[in-house]
Amino acid sequence: xxxxxxxxxxxxxxxxxxxxxxxxxxxxxxxxxxxxxxxxxxxxxxxxxxxxxxxxxxxxxxxxxxxxxxxxxxxxxxxxxxxxxxxxxxxxxxxxxxxxxxxxxxxxxxxxxxxxxxxxxxxxxxxxxxxxxxxxxxxxxxxxxxxxxxxxxxxxxxxxxxxxxxxxxxxxxxxxxxxxxxxxxxxxxxxxxxxxxxxxxxxxxxxxxxxxxxxxxxxxxxxxxxxxxxxxxxxxxxxxxxxxxxxxxxxxxxxxxxxxxxxxxxxxxxxxxxxxxxxxxxxxxxxxxxxxxxxxxxxxxxxxxxxxxxxxxxxxxxxxxxxxxxxxxxxxxxxxxxxxxxxxxxxxxxxxxxxxxxxxxxxxxxxxxxxxxxxxxxxxxxxxxxxxxxxxxxxxxxxxxxxxxxxxxxxxxxxxxxxxxxxxxxxxxxxxxxxx
Length: 436
Known about the structure:
Elements: E1 2-8, H1 20-27, H2 36-44, H3 47-60, E2 71-80, H4 81-87, E3 93-97, H5 117-143, H6 148-155, E4 164-172, H7 173-183, H8 189-205, H9 217-221, E5 236-239, H10 243-254, H11 258-266, H12 270-281, E6 298-306, H13 307-313, E7 320-323, H14 336-340, H15 344-358, E8 374-382, H16 383-393, H17 400-416, H18 427-430
Antiparallel strand pairs: 1-2, 2-4, 3-4, 5-6, 6-8, 7-8
């Protein structure tokens, strides 16, 4: 594991050396009538005074938003994909991660710190078998005409969740404090070590912005993933129809109460309803979000998906999701290309062997499961998020596993609300629609 503080924001006009002076000066805006540039200049010249001010305003007064003015950049190197999921579960941070889809992976295994002696040796041995299987699959896919990226994309399904990765992370101080506190009580030692290192680095740079670091009962509860007992599940649990967005579109035009608008909607003909939607969506480009009214549409899903597909889904951080543990009872996802080259049996056999060994590591077993293994996710998205999800994940350039899932999700909600999702689809599908 290698974590470095790559940078943070400072007051460049006044030679600032810490983001604390920016947060302190901005905090004073609400009570000090002087110009902001004067407040910044004063804070930059009195760092210790700025730190005292931060502690009083952020922690004594409870104005935590002030800490959001301090932003940090981190290099996160040589952590497991499993630990990366723990980091990337937080909504208000930005991550860019090494892609196993585009980069061929070497035997980069992260051994859980809890393992030592014979247990560590067994873990390394089982991990090596999966990397060897990965290489055999890759070479066979290439020999059968697959392009390099396609071969990497499908061979990676046998890589363990203990495979090493790296990422860049950008986060403000308020969210970072929340992350450190929560991750410091994570069940896995690797994740707790990440939290400790992040805290060490930021305490050197901005000690006045991090105080509430003792995990609470709610932090511990957050790590309790629900178990699974069977593999079947319903895709769409609940969904609004067109009436909610439609009534809000009427209200936008008339200003009448929502109840009245709902009554008016119920009396509109199908053609008039469609005209109402077309008027609101006219000119929507492939990079545009639909109007904010679409945020009042809600849909809930129950998904069973591979770790590979979840790696894409987790990037949509503004949705609400509850995740289960990874569990072999949910089965595995086998890329169709593996069957086409006659290696499905070897693929499945390799995963069955590793499942047997994984159980010997007790609570650390997920490290030895693979990108093909599945988890269950309860997911809630609003209409705007669903459009964004559709644009990215139904696009022709999207990875096939998440593209198939996105297609099923969008098809399900479109049946319930055909007007609300009349322009849903990947960028490659809807480019030019309504351009005339």
